[in-house]
Amino acid sequence: MSSESRLASLTSWNADWSGLRVAVLGLSMTGFSVADTLTELGAEVLVLSESADEEYATLLPVIGARLELGSLAQVPAPLIDFAPEVIIASPGFSPVHPVIRWAQDSEIALWGDIELAWRVRDKVTREDGTPADWVLITGTNGKTTTTQLTASLLVEGGLRAAPCGNIGIPVLDAVRDPAGFDVLVVELSSHQLWYLGRSREEGRLYPHASVCLNLADDHLVWHGSAEAYRDAKAVVYRNTRVACVYNKADEATRLMVEDAEVVEGARAIGFDLGIPGPSDVGVVEGLLVDRAFLDDRARSALELTTVADLERVGLAAPHIVQNILAASALARSLGVEPEAIHAALQAFRLDEHRIQVVARHAGITWVDDSKATNPHAAASSLRAFPGAVWVVGGDLKGVDIADLVSTAGKAARAAVVIGVERASVVAAFQRHAPTVPVFEVDAGETDQVMNRVVEIAAGIVDGEGTVLLAPAAASFDQFSSYADRGHRFAEAVRDWIDRGSTDDSGRTPPTV
Q1: Same domain flag for 79 and 183
Q2: Are 414 and 456 in the same domain?
Q3: Contacts of 235 (CB under 8 A, 6+ apart)
Q4: Are 172 and 37 in contact (CB under 8 A)?
């Protein structure tokens, strides 16, 4: 049997994977889950990584995989000598990475962990012998919240559901969980979707339902262009069987659905904050309603919850309501009743660093939205907190912040600019929002940057108002992660409160 024919046959956990030569690129949580799965299946596994967590490096030989550590700036000799039949890459490997280019030029099958998980999804099945349904979620912003929401709604509706994928739990771990699930709710990054776009027919996913929440420029360096980023996101709708959920307020997502090759009978389900049409979910006079999944949708609607109820549990910010509507549409496509959706939403809480109020003191509300790592996310935060003192800046990832400043940024009370790319942010304010006061925090003050941010912001507010950390940028220029950035912000706020809400630094904020 040829290598190509053999790969085409590998669409079940029970297929013959023995001796298949697979190279795994990267040894993160995802890379280890791939190696662990493949060795269990009997494949011959070579893991290549520039670095490795000590725990993973120790476990690899135990499970029967081989590890090669070293630079991957060029195609390493051990990989060439191994002559892999398949290369499975961790999502961090971009399309222009030398090893990825070599794989494509050599016509070696190139998978991501998601394709492998789909191929072996029948390891644990439901009572009727079928594997779990998959629900796919992507978008520039809101993916994790919507994934968590959808899983919560499904569980409240009586289904065994697990959030997994880019949310931090490898899909392969969920697939191999001996307890089994009815539904896997899979968050997908644009990187993972790019690899899915390379899939041959036998490796393509057939999700029950899918959604792209929104689209805005992001990860342009990784993808090479906005068009390539958009094309990767559009893969989420391919072969959807029941419901393609899209954002009516974002034309790009509607066009993705219109262009998608789906299973006959799949429906397009729209969501936004307006009055819904007969195949949509939306908002009517403070009620979140479903006009998509009921028999008389032409003349009636089903109430899911109310904006007032969401406000009581901190879920009423407009972009969070949009996430709730998308998650509700996905859950309704799997038969979850409106009463279960309402009950689940009353118990749901957002993760840290997502429009999280970290303190209210001396008239100031301090909000941590460190997860707003691109302009689209930051714009949503600014709309939720108009007139806030905006803490902005970091690693812009090749994205121009000018549009954000010229629109949402104009309404800020002031801006406190952090990060190594401060000059670009300051220039955008000078050009597009010259009336907004701008203050800089020197990038050299990394250990104390958030203490200085809080001192400056408290001095600006001086009475009553909101300070919003919504950086519109990645964190790695100064912090270990967006979570580290958010934690440092919250700690600095607590320190300011403990000091008696006074600035005893003796320094005058440097106005630009």
Answers
A1: no
A2: yes
A3: 193, 194, 196, 197
A4: yes
Q: Return d(Cα 495, Cα 396) in angstroms, integer.
A: 29
Q: Rounded mean pLDDT of 109-135?
A: 97
What is the SS3 string spanning 293-342?
A: CCCCCCCCCEEEEEHHHHHHCCCCCHHHHHHHHHHHHHHHHCCCCHHHHH
User: CA 126 to CA 123: how far, in whole Å?
Assistant: 10
Give the pairing of strands 183-187 and 66-69. unpaired
Residue pLDDT, tens place only, 1-34:
678 889 999 999 999 999 999 999 999 999 999 9
Residue 51's Cβ-count burial label (10 Å; 0-12, 13-18, 19+) is exposed
Going by C-alpha positions, the residue among 37, 46, 2 that lies closest to residue 17 is: 37
Q: Are 71 and 190 members of one domain?
A: no
Residues 329 and 292 sit within 8 Å (Cβ to Cβ):
yes
**Averaged pLDDT, 316-325:** 95
Token duo for residue 246: 């899209």
* CA nearest to 319, candidates 255, 371, 390, 258: 371
Q: What is the pLDDT of residues 326-369, one digit of tens each?
A: 999 999 999 999 999 999 999 999 888 888 899 999 899 999 99
Q: Note whether residue 510 is domain-resident.
A: no
Regarding whether 236 and 152 lie in a shared domain, the answer is yes
Sign of CA dihedral 166, 171, 172, 177: positive
Residues 272 and 389 in one domain: no
Give the domain CATH number at 25. Answer: 3.40.50.720
| Beta carbons of 309 and 318 less than 8 angstroms apart | no
Model pLDDT for residues 447-495, shown as the tens digit of each residue: 789 999 999 999 999 878 999 999 999 998 899 999 999 999 999 999 9
Residue for token digits 């009950």?
343
Q: What are the distances in angstroms from CA 31 to CA 10, 109, 175?
A: 20, 17, 15
**Residue 262 CB contacts under 8 Å (≥ 6 apart), including other chains:** 237, 238, 239, 240, 241, 244
Is 509 a residue whose pLDDT tops 70? no
Looking at the structure, tell me whether residues 300 and 192 fall in a common domain.
Answer: yes
For 129: left if phi > 0, alpha if psi spans -120 to 50, otherwise beta; the answer is left
Q: How many CB atoms lie within 10 A of CB 411?
A: 15
User: What string of H, E and C letters represents the secondary structure of 14-51?
Assistant: CCCCCCCEEEEECCCHHHHHHHHHHHHHCCEEEEEECC
| Cα separation, 269 vs 236, whole angstroms | 15
